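Lab notebook, bench 4. Still working through the backlog of constructs that have no structural model yet. Next entry is a single chain of 90 residues. Request: give me the structure tokens for it.
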Amino acid sequence: MNGYAVVYEPAKQRTESFGGVGSAEGIGPVHAAPAEGDHGLPGPVTLCGLETDDLVKHPQDQPLDPFETWYPPVGVNSFCRECDEAIAAA
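Model written out:
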């Protein structure tokens, strides 16, 4: 159990298709928040101090499963250095 819920900042990503250019929501930097309850829902504030209200729970996060890292092994392009340092110091 890693004890952290992974949340991310929504990021707009450019998409191209035969119909033209558009945008879609993607996964921006991920942050760690203390996991609360049996379902591992994120607490109100991340370890770096961001409120989690505007952040999105990562779909592949399993805060009750032991990963080698606090964030999921797939689907993460960048992570918050402050959250990572806070976890390393704990």
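Notes after review: The two ends are 14 Å apart (CA to CA). The chain has one domain: 4-89. Flag for follow-up if needed.
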